[in-house]
Amino acid sequence: MIEGSIAMKGYLIQIEDATRDNQYYRRVLFTAQHSQLVLMSLKPGEEIGEEVHELDQFIRFEEGEGIVVLDGENHAVSDGFAVVIPAGTRHNVVNSGKTAALKLYSLYSPPEHKDGIIHKTKQEADADHDHHFDGRTSMK
């Protein structure tokens, strides 16, 4: 079970366990005014799809094998790898594994998605055209 706790001024979670336990394509765990924590799980052969953000993104891989494409250049990644994607960088993440999910967490700065959003599948995420950050945070 993925559970974290919202502290008075932040969020606490065992991120490695939460990332490995996540079964959803995308799950927004916590959104602050200037950053956001998101879990992702890509099925074998699945990819995020090429995209460019107007924000910075950090990705940490916890399980599986994949390819990160940064402005057309491929980089193999696996457990323990991290990548920083500056705003304006064309990028993609692909699960290159044959049997295992590619598990990762991402930090966006500023936030990219609506707080608390869960997309169970990539198809669900692709169909959701109203998922972008709307100014609401996890802080109550």
Would you give an account of this structure?
With 140 residues, the protein is mostly beta strands. It has one domain (5-127): Jelly Rolls (Sandwich). The chain has helices spanning 15-21, 122-127, and strands spanning 5-7, 10-12, 26-31, 36-42, 56-63, 65-70, 73-78, 82-85, 91-95, 102-109, 118-119. The strands form 3 sheets. It has a 6-stranded antiparallel β-sheet with strand order 8-5-10-4-3-11. Strands 7-6-9 form a 3-stranded antiparallel β-sheet, with no helix packed on it. A two-stranded antiparallel sheet has the order 1-2. The model has no long low-confidence stretch (mean pLDDT 95).
- Percent of residues in beta strands: 35-45%
Average the pLDDT over all residues and give the rounded result: 95
Total domain modules: 1
Helix content: under 10%
Outline? globular
Give the oligomeric state: single chain
CATH architecture: Sandwich
Order of helices and strands: EEHEEEEEEEEEH
How are the strands of the biggest sheet laid out side by side?
8-5-10-4-3-11
Radius of gyration: 14 Å
Q: Briefly note the structural class of the backbone.
A: mainly beta
**How many β-strands, per DSSP?**
11
Low-pLDDT runs:
none
For the biggest sheet, the summary is:
6 strands, antiparallel
How far apart the termini lie comes to: 23 Å
Number of alpha- plus pi-helical segments: 2
Can you tell me the CATH topology? Jelly Rolls
Q: Assign the CATH class.
A: Mainly Beta
CATH homologous superfamily annotation: Jelly Rolls
